[in-house]
Amino acid sequence: MRVYCLALLLYALVLAFTPSVGAATSSSTNKPNFPAFELSQDGPGRLEIGSYMGVLVDISRAIGLEQARAQTQAWQPITRQSPNFGFTQDSYWFRFQLVNRDTKALTRFIELPIPFLDDVRLYHFVGNALVDQYSLGDEQPFAQRAVRHRNFIMPVQLAPGNNEIYLRLASAGTIEAPLRIWDPVKFYAASNDENLAQGAVIGILLIMVVYNLFVWMSTRDINYLYYICFVASYMMFHLTLTGYSFAYVWPEAVRWNSFAISTFAASSAVFTCLFTDSFLKLRSFSRPAFCLVRAMMVCSAALFALSFVLPYSWTIRIAAAITLPITITALFLGYWRWWQGARFARFYCLAWTAILIGIAVLNASKFGWVPTNVWTENASQIGIVMLVVLLSFTLADRINNDRTLRLNAQAVALGHARKARSSQAALIQANEQANRELEQRVLSRTNDLNAAMAQLSQANARLQMLSTTDGLTQIGNRAFFDGAALTELRRAERQRAAVSIILMDIDHFKRINDTFGHPAGDACLRALADMLRPRIDRAGDILARYGGEEFIIALTGVDLDGSVALAEELRKATDRLRVEFEGKPLRFTASFGVVSVVPQTALSLEDLVSAADRALYDAKRNGRNCVRHSTIT
Fold first, then answer.
1. Rounded to whole angstroms, how far apart are CA atoms 271 and 273?
2. Which of residues 247 and 265 earns the better pLDDT score?
3. Calpha distance 470→204 (Å, rounded)
4. Higher pLDDT, residue 320 or 25
């Protein structure tokens, strides 16, 4: 039976990766790298572009639209079966033609069903006239999308005759362009069907999480806890990968969405290793296997932590590199345990076999090795549902197996009891007492460990907050500003957006301390922070106490005029501020230094702050209570 199951697994994998030839239809012009597709009102509601596009690889990522249109010789046809270019730092231009055979304009949706691309730009030309253009990406707020959908949907009005479409893609992850052309009515119908299917998958995962959570609460079996964490992590990974979380859960959290895929992939790997180690009892079964799985767990945990600080282009490559080895290792160890006689591993093996086949079929369809249909497109989802359900059966089967073993042991004990009833009774009593003490001890240790972990988590969270928060004003401190501002500076450099620094200093602050005492000065600092906090509230803007009576503000996407206007508004608000201290109203003013620039590669954060500091000193020299700006030299 075991040999048969192994042979069946190998046969399924061979079928999954066996190449097959699919048919695609398009009408091409006399330029093989500029194919054309005919459309009409009575035509199909969905058109797959596939690899029938011209492609231009931009290694420098600096080619603009006009340059791309002018480089006729550089455009090449796509020779691979699927427009998937993998992990790359290059940007890619694609082009094709949509030929409207009707006499009236046609409304069509161009769908790019890859929701995790950083930069997506589409240009629609009729002749030499640009009639539509879109600039999208997962690094932009979700609200900016033309159609509220998890994928990139770009409506176009196709004029009668030829319509040229240019598409530029750039991303820190993979570059894929499986474009589809939709009739809007057909699109919404298909989208509703897909949302229903995705809802069913998520519903099944949620049901398994809730059900097994109740089981864990009653049994306190650590395997159930690892299983719950794995299912929850994968569910969040799936929602993030398919764009549902960005569309419905955190549409404004652009920065978090940029690395959430790596984070949830790493947490799924961590709990996969923990579940495999605990369920298969690797510590007692095989020391090398136990060390291997623990090493994979440590690497996954390190990736989970690093996903918050390292670039997404690094972490997603590492996550992709470790996922398949962990899955194969978990599957191999399960069959090994089953081969050695552990019957409780049978459903475990079937579960991991299902997900591995699902992933293999999905990858084969992505590379064009098998035909694309509803089954291959949802192979990974079918596989994960089977994995989750079968793993739940696995846990129940192990409980039944353990119960059977206990019943068999009791039957043997009862057989011996016929010969020595008195000794058996004493032995059973002692065994039951020992079991009760052991269960109480294990439960006590588990509760102590959970309590200690909770206290440690609270202490770590408090330490993290204290390390980046100014204790007096409860806003960010200098360390927080340096880290956050550097991140925004690099993002602005990639997006060619303006970055502004506003450095403000309270005028004659020493006079306040000398006249009214340091508590009065502290009250002024807190009041000023409370006044600034609600005014610096855009996503990506940073407010911090830079030191002493200095406050610093970093703005993204705001030019010099806007920054000076904001600084002037803050100066007036500071001048109007009244601080009640011991029944006395305190007033003070502040001087402002402003600098704004579109960052270049050689520009550092220190250069920006230094320029703002020079402008601040210029304001001090010019009588204080004023705004001055400086430039980068």
1. 5
2. 265
3. 45
4. 320
- Please state whether 591 falls in left (phi above 0), alpha (psi between -120 and 50) or beta: beta
Beta bridge partners of 580: 585
Q: Is the pLDDT of residue 501 over 50?
A: yes
Residues forming a β-bridge with 388: none
Amino acid, single-letter form, for residue 477: N
Spatial distance between the Cα atoms of 405 and 109, rounded to a whole number of angstroms? 61
CB 166 within 8 A of CB 98: no
| % of the chain residues with pLDDT over 90 | 27
For position 22, what pLDDT does the model report?
29
Closest C-alpha to 367, from 118, 122, 165, 174: 174
Residue 440: the pLDDT is: 85
Residue 4 CB partners (closer than 8 Å, separation 6+)? none
- Provide the β-strand partners of residue 591: 505
Round to whole Å and give the CA distance between 469 and 98.
Answer: 55
Q: Are 481 and 544 in contact (CB under 8 A)?
A: yes
pLDDT at 226: 87
Give the DSSP per-residue string, 119-151: EEEEEEEETTEEEEEEEE-TTS-GGG-SS-SSS
How far is it, in rounded angstroms, from Cα 154 to Cα 134?
7
Q: Is 155 helix (H, G, I), strand (E, B) or coil?
A: strand
| pLDDT value of residue 367 | 53
Helix (H, G, I), strand (E, B), or coil: what is residue 88?
coil
Q: Residue 26's pLDDT band (boundaries 50, 70, 90)?
A: very low
Q: Which DSSP letter does residue 248 get? A: I
Q: How large is the greatest C-alpha to C-alpha distance in the chain, in angstroms?
A: 107
Expressed in percent and rounded to 5, the helix, strand and coil fractions of the chain are 55, 20, 25
| Tens digits of residue pLDDT in 85-134 | 888 888 999 999 999 998 899 999 999 988 888 899 999 999 889 999 99
Contacts (Cβ under 8 Å, ≥6 apart) of 297: 269, 270, 273, 274, 277
Q: Please, which residues bridge with residue 595 across strands? A: 501, 630
The number of C-alpha atoms within 13 Å of 331 and in the hemisphere containing its C-beta is: 19
Q: What is the DSSP string of 452-466?
A: HHHHHHHHHHHHHHH
Q: Which tokens in the block code for residue 73? A: 């010789």
Enumerate residues 6+ apart whose C-beta is below 8 A from 202: 235, 238, 239
Q: What's the rounded mean pLDDT across residues 463-476?
A: 79
User: How large is the average pLDDT for residues 467-491?
Assistant: 88
Block residue for tokens 């600039």: 135
pTM equals 0.53
- Sheet strand arrangement including 550-556: 542-547, 550-556, 499-506, 590-597, 627-630
Average pLDDT along the chain: 82
Q: Which is higher by pLDDT, 31 or 291?
A: 291
Whether 549 and 574 have beta carbons less than 8 Å apart is answered as no
C-beta separation of 303 from 262 below 8 A: yes
- What confidence score (pLDDT) does residue 344 get? 76
Strands 579-581 and 584-586, by their bridges, are: antiparallel
* Separation of alpha carbons 444 and 350, rounded Å: 35
- Distance from C-alpha of 389 to C-alpha of 204, rounded to nearest angstrom: 9
Catalytic sites, residue numbers: 549
Question: Can you give the three-state secondary structure of 519-579, one letter per residue?
Answer: HHHHHHHHHHHHHHHHHCCCCCCEEEEEECCEEEEEEECCCHHHHHHHHHHHHHHHHHCCE
